[in-house]
Amino acid sequence: MNNTESEFLPALVAHIVKTAGANGDKAPSERELAEHFAVSRGQVRESLAILEALQLIERRAKSGIYLTMDSAGLSSMALLARAGVQLMPRQIFEAVELRKIHEIKAAELAAQRATDDNLDRLRDILARSEKQIADGLGLHRLDGEFHLEIVRATQNEMFYKICSSFYAASEQRLPIYFGKVERNIKSHNEHMQIFDALYRRDSILAQALMNTHLGRAQSYWTEILEASGEKNPLQDALPRAHV
What DSSP string runs through 122-151? Predict the structure, then answer.
């Protein structure tokens, strides 16, 4: 995908979501999209094929193009975030839960496999984080760097690609989480503890620390969504306790 296409896709998605939302999920036609963006129908067709592969849209014979955000996977969620589209509460809860599962395992593997280069990069991120806090700035970018470097330390490229999608999907929300000074300090202190466990090759401790660290973030987003009137959609899927 070239630069022009990578810039066009988010704009196309944002327009489709906006127009389809007011039209029973039905998106504009290829011709209408080409006219709106002043591009060729060929470029629109190629971009729609990508969106269809990502399960963001569905072409229905003799009916048109329809938005299917309920089917969005991780790659789709990352694209929606780049387009400035608000994710649905269920997608947010599921992504946060899945990220926690993946990164706890990543901490275990990183403790076993991290190279000196991985550890040096983590030290550098921690040093920059300390300076960032001293300057009164948030850690929303450095937090992603730290966590993804741990995933990189697993030496599993597929693992890294999956977890990168989590951060791409949540990039717009991280500045909100790191908006408070005390949260930045707490997160940095926990990062240092996790690094120490990785350095000492203590995979059990690294897992436990990551579980606590991400559990705190998970609780925060649950509170934010519920405060805005959104119920945790995963609660409805849980079986009732037997009495």
Answer: HHHHHHHHHHHHHTT---HHHHHHHHHHHH
How many angstroms from the chain centroid is the CA of residue 200?
A: 29
Identify whether the C-beta of residue 163 lies closer than 8 Å to the C-beta of residue 106.
yes
Can you tell me the distance from the alpha carbon of 210 to that of 216, in angstroms, rounded to the nearest whole number? 10
DSSP three-state, residue 57: strand
Inter-axis angle of helices 74-82 and 89-113, nearest 10: 110
pLDDT by residue (tens digit) across 164-202?
877 776 666 677 778 888 989 999 999 999 999 999 999
Q: What structural domains and CATH numbers belong to the chain?
A: 3-77 (1.10.10.10), 89-230 (1.20.120.530)
pTM equals: 0.71
Other CB atoms closer than 10 Å to residue 81's CB: what's the count? Answer: 20
Is 147 within 8 Å of 102 (Cβ atoms)?
no
Q: Are strands 57-60 and 64-67 parallel, antiparallel or unpaired?
A: antiparallel
Residues in the chain, pLDDT under 50 = 1-3, 237-238, 243
